[in-house]
Amino acid sequence: MLCSSISPVLTVSLVGALLWNRVQGFWVIHSVPRFPPIAEEGYDYPATGRRNGQSGICVTFKYNQYETIDSQLLVCNPNIYSCSIPATFHQELVHMPQLCTRFRPSKIPVRYLTTLQSAQGQTFLHFAKSDSFLDDIFAAWIAQQLKTHFLTETWQRKRQELPSNCSLPYHVYNIKAIKVSRQSYFSSYQDHAKWGISQKGTKDHWTCIGDLNRSPHQAFRSGGFICTQNRNIYQAFQKLVLYYEDCN
Ligand SMILES: *[C@@H]1O[C@H](CO)[C@@H](O)[C@H](O)[C@H]1NC(C)=O
């Protein structure tokens, strides 16, 4: 996956990786803790990602999208554990080198929504929230913004759950179990994944993949979701839904 032609630049965050050169690069957004490992440890899938279900997406972007991605990272403030950004990029991608040194400017947007274009012209929306947006990103923002009811699959932990939410015009329902094949299904308590899709039957077919759970604690965390209306991606996720929790 790591093409040698893209090798000089690498930043790795808690739940993602970004690589690029002056032509293009890719952004992996996923839920696997400590993946990829730091370069000195070699390239392998970590044990931390084996116990539970995980989700992720990898998108190729032309370099002209990287200033936008750079600004989004400032807002979602990933916990970066490995960085290598040559000085030649520092004037264009100003935030990433700062984030690598743990420097944070004092003025950061509370949240920011932007459009990104993949290298082959697919449109993505990226929702970034800072830790001062003290709300559930799905119920308070993404569902209302995209005007679609969402089914969300995020890591559920007993006594740390936000219930399904129908208070606002667009609802958010917690998926409680997914099926991977006809014989095999598992509960969201074992699924560390973080994604949401438009409820079946709605005309919009959104899929969002990101790095925040629907949990009261994660309202205090920064993070984000990347969303697409790609039909193949939607169908792949839609097929996984076994059942979800209605509102009380
Ligand atoms: C639903 O979500 C909104 C936005 O986060 C919140 O203000 C509201 O209190 C929630 N409703 C319930 C019943 O939890």
Write the layout of secondary structure elements.
Layout: E1 10-13, E2 16-20, E3 24-30, E4 56-62, H1 66-76, E5 82-84, H2 95-100, E6 111-117, E7 123-129, H3 137-146, E8 150-154, E9 172-179, E10 185-187, E11 194-198, E12 207-210, E13 223-228, H4 231-238, E14 241-244
Parallel strand pairs: 8-9
Antiparallel strand pairs: 1-2, 1-5, 2-3, 3-4, 6-7, 7-13, 8-11, 9-10, 9-14, 11-12, 12-13
The structure holds 2-acetamido-2-deoxy-beta-D-glucopyranose (NAG).
Task: Please describe what this structure looks like.
The chain is an alpha+beta fold and about 250 residues long. It folds into two domains: about 10-100, no CATH class; about 110-245, no CATH class. Helices cover about 15% and strands about 30% of the residues. It has four helices and 14 strands. It has helices spanning about 65-75, 95-100, 135-145, 230-240, and strands at about 10-15, 15-20, 25-30, 55-60, 80-85, 110-115, 125-130, 150-155, 170-180, 185, 195-200, 205-210, 225-230, 240-245. Strands 6, 7, 8, 9, 10, 11, 12, 13 and 14 form a nine-stranded mixed beta sheet that branches. Strand 11 and strand 12 form a beta hairpin. The radius of gyration is 18 Å and the shape is globular. It starts with 9 loop residues before the first strand and ends with a strand.
Amino- and carboxy-terminal Cα gap: 45 Å
Please bin the fraction of helical residues.
10-25%
Helix-strand topology string: EEEEHEHEEHEEEEEEHE
Heteromolecules bound: 2-acetamido-2-deoxy-beta-D-glucopyranose
How much of the sequence lies in strands comes to 25-35%
Query: What's the overall average pLDDT, rounded?
Result: 90
Radius of gyration of CA atoms, rounded to a whole number: 18 Å
Structurally, how many domains make up the residues?
Answer: 2
Class per helix and strand makeup: alpha+beta
- Tell how many strands the DSSP assignment holds: 14
Unreliable stretches, pLDDT < 50, 5 or more residues?
A: 1-8
Q: Treating each run of at least 4 consecutive H or I residues as one helix, how many helices?
A: 4
| Sheet of most strands | 9 strands, mixed
